[in-house]
Amino acid sequence: MAMTQEPLPAGVSAQGGPGPYGRLAVDRGLSQALLTSANAGRSVFLQVTGEPGGVVHLVDGGVVAIETPGAPDAETVLLRSGLIPEPGWDAAFTAAAASGRLAAEIVQQGLIGAARLEAVLRIVLADAMFVLAVGRVEECHVVDAAAPSLLALEPGAEPRRLLDETSRRLQVLAAMGSQITHDRDRVTAGAWQVTSRLPLSDSQRDILALANGRRTARDMAFALGRGVFALTLEFSRLHELGLLVVGSRRGGTPAGQADRAGSPAGPNPHQAADPAAGPGKDPVSPLPRRRAPSQPGETSPARAPQAPPALLRILRRGPSGPQVPADPEEPGRTAGQDAP
Amino acid sequence: MAKDRLLTEMRALRDRVVGVTDSVLASRDGLIIAADTATIDPDNLAALGAAMIGLAQRMAAEAGQGSLRDSVTRNSGGYVATYAVGGEALLVVLGDTGLNWALLYRESRSTVDNLGNLLAQASPRADGTAAAAS
Questions:
Q1: H/E stretch holding B79
Q2: Which of B38, B77, B100 is closest, CB to CB, to A69?
Q3: pLDDT at A162
């Protein structure tokens, strides 16, 4: 597949070097299994073992649903984002439980428009394919049966388009030099006490409010009902500004040098650094102190940490300056927009 | 320190199983032993977990279905799984909607076993002396 240079999303700058996403690619075994099923027009469940792994449901060669612990499903997105109120969902579920046609029922009950629901389902599918295809894939095999998803995209999305979209997303993240991986890096809000002065979007403030050192982009996607890829983009932007830092990594690897861009010196005031501060609070090691330049022979006095240049530019523009751009690839913004 | 080792086990479970968000280790009378939580109130979870494990064990017996394995509450916003830890403690594990609770049961076996051993080591012996720290 020819790799053309994808333009970066608006407001995103390359951070130098491809980062971890420059080393990732769509799993070939998964790609082959999907395209084989698509070409044959099969209706099957494809079990993908690995991490995050999952189950891909194909009908007549099109992907109608993907279940994976790596990305929120449509129900989680619709409810957690507030697109559909929970009482309405429960009523629609009860009505559709026998027929299994939940999508038609929630549209019929006026809970969401048909076009918007389709856009959400497509975004959720693309997100699930992204985490599945760039994750660790051990095996792909057809299973006889699996519980069909209640919210299926009809007709299904072409596997080729989903895989192409995954490749595009990898290119975007690599071009950004994103240093934050969506499934490993747990983020903490940075130490800069200036967020009230910044033209941040509500969604970015939501991210900073939930960045408690325990959540990866995947975890926050489930908490907010948003897409993993969209949040990974947001994390990268906020990381570049020094507003998000990597506190720890899943798999037991200390953050250590994982945070390379814009780390404020000193401990994070939003986190208890002392394990004795309270039961169960994740201790966060103080970030390495950055030494201020000094004359030879002088002992450097303690100085306030320098904000990253990108953050300083925004602060100088003031609150009336352009907003730090949010990502358009969110379920709440998908009405009428292009989606696989 | 024994509590650090308990927390290490609980954090390792959260590290190992995608979707686990919090966990609380409590005594059967609902008191906190250790908590790996963020915004959730661990005291309330400990008390409710103790009540839940007792009811669940009683339910399993009443239903004639053998011994309790786990008690899982499935909610619109995620899962709460409660496991007995030996005869004197319990573990409450919270997860988001992406949690595979069947996988969690398998992955939590070593955690429950290790927590039980750590608690047994820290408990006073019948002769009143403390068990030797290992």
A1: strand B78-85
A2: B100
A3: 96
- A250·B4 Cβ contact <8 A: no
B72: nearest Cα among B63, B61, B81? B81
Per-run averaged pLDDT (10 residues), chain A, 340 residues: 49 64 89 92 92 94 95 95 93 88 92 96 97 94 79 93 95 89 93 69 91 96 96 93 90 49 36 37 41 47 59 64 47 42
- CA–CA distance, A17 with B94 (Å, rounded to integer): 38
Interface of A with B in 113-132 (CB under 8 A): none
In order along its 134 residues, chain B shows pLDDT tens digits of 588 999 999 999 999 999 999 999 999 999 999 999 999 999 999 999 999 999 999 999 999 999 999 999 999 999 999 999 999 999 999 999 999 888 899 999 999 999 999 999 987 655 555 454 44
| B124 contact A CB<8A | no
Q: Out of A76, A252, A280, whose CB is closest to B36?
A: A280
Q: Concatenate the DSSP letters of all residues of A250-316 into one string.
A: TTS-B-TT---SSPPSB--TTS---GGGSTTPPP-PPBPPPPPP--TTPPPPP-PPPPPHHHHHHHH
Run of H or E residues at B94: strand B89-95
Name the amino acid, one letter, at B50: A
Q: What is the ipTM of this complex?
A: 0.88
DSSP three-state, residue A64: strand
Q: Which residue of B has its CA nearest to A253?
A: B15
Considering only CB atoms, which chain B residues are within 8 Å of A223? 96
**Is B38 at the interface with chain A, CB within 8 A?**
yes
Which domains occur in chain B, in start order? 2-121 (3.30.450.30)
Residue A205: what residue type? R
- Residues from chain B contacting residue A284 (CB–CB below 8 Å): none
Q: Give the three-class secondary structure for B85.
A: strand
- Global pTM reads 0.80
Neighboring chain B residues of A212 at a CB cutoff of 8 Å = 38-39
Per-window interface: A 58-77 vs B, CB < 8 A = 68-73, 75-76
